[in-house]
Amino acid sequence: MRVVVQKVKYSSVSVEGKLVNEIQKGLNVLVGFTAGDSSKEIDYLVNKVLNLRIFEDDNGVMNKSVQDVGGNILLISQFTLYGDASKGNRPSYIKALGGKEAEPLYDEMALKLNRIIPTYKGVFGADMEVVINNDGPTTIIIDSK
Question: The whole model's pTM is what?
Answer without folding.
Answer: 0.96
